[in-house]
Amino acid sequence: MMLTLYRRVNPVNKIKKLTGLTRVIGFGHNEPPAQGEAGNTTITQAAHEFSTMANEADSISRSSSRCLSSNTSTPDGNPRVKRVSIEGNIAVGKSTFARLLQSASPDWEVVAEPVSKWQNIESGTMKGTCASSQTAVSNLLQMMYQDAQRWSYTFQTYSCMSRLRTQLQPPPARLLSSEGTPVQVYERSVYSDRYIFALNMFELGCINSTEWAIYQDWHSLLMEQFGHQVELEGIIYLRALPQKCMERLQRRGRSEEKGVKLDYLNKLHIQHERWLVEKSTELHFEKLKHVPVLQLDASVEFQSDPDVREQFVTKVTNFFNNL
Ligand SMILES: Nc1ncnc2c1ncn2[C@@H]1O[C@H](COP(=O)(O)OP(=O)(O)OP(=O)(O)O)[C@@H](O)[C@H]1O
Ligand SMILES: Nc1nc(=O)c2ncn([C@H]3C[C@H](O)[C@@H](CO)O3)c2[nH]1
Questions:
Q1: What is the ipTM of this complex?
Q2: Ligand number, closest to the Cα atom of 260
Q3: Known active-site residue 113
Q4: Where is composition skewed (Low complexity) in this entry (predicted)?
């Protein structure tokens, strides 16, 4: 019997060959990311083709109502403690803003992005010379920036898993007994993992079509299984132009981000705008399509200006009260 194997042509690879974008995004210090938008539209079309294919069987019906054991519901079925994520480009100021919120009200609990986990993955033990052993530690954030094509898929599996853990953390007792509007605030979410970063890496060719299909498959399964526990009631979008984010990124000087180029921040900015402003990103979770978004101008300097800080806190308070 003869077996015929058909090899599907990966349109992204084909496009990369056509446009010469063989290393669409190399953050490694010897591999600057390609400048300009060459080929991006076509890659985006290919991305859409694949995301449609991978998701036909994947349209999510919300999982049968899984109750939050640690977050009691109001009579209308909504969780007592609201859940909001802060979204925005790299170095736009999410952690800084989160600290401001944390100090503004005891009813708000901020949960940081698990960056330090990505920088310190215990990856086994190394035998030392004199019978001692040392723990080997990998920095996945650095590995991803140095060789995006090799490590992006691995990075997205780990970032998404660690975000899921973060979002599943029960609210602290203080929030459960609050008489105001208690809110758990996450720095980014399982949704930006998919609709900002993983999607962007796919469009850049750093995640191939097989990896993207697999990512979407398990992401949808997890969202379905964890149902209401990972849903958000609101999103705060901190918006600033990529140039401003670049200035802050450089000022912060995180060593892993040395190779990040303005072009990459431009692309991430576009993904945020599509998802949160233009609403043109194809989403697969019904509730997410209707989550209210509070957009704040993050380009203003608020650290040294108490009036600006107060205005931000007032806007956020009103937003939370209306969720
Ligand atoms: N409103 C602001 N005005 C001026 N500088 C700011 C402002 N917000 C943050 N910064 C500075 O910009 C840098 C990046 O801020 P921060 O670490 O809060 O960004 P981030 O969005 O959390 O980053 P990441 O995307 O890596 O998680 C820091 O050096 C911080 O002090
Ligand atoms: N590739 C990729 N996928 C993600 O889901 C993701 N989330 C955050 N980051 C990068 C941005 C900052 O450098 C740093 C801290 O936010 O980590 C990500 N990078």
A1: 0.99
A2: 2
A3: no
A4: 61-73
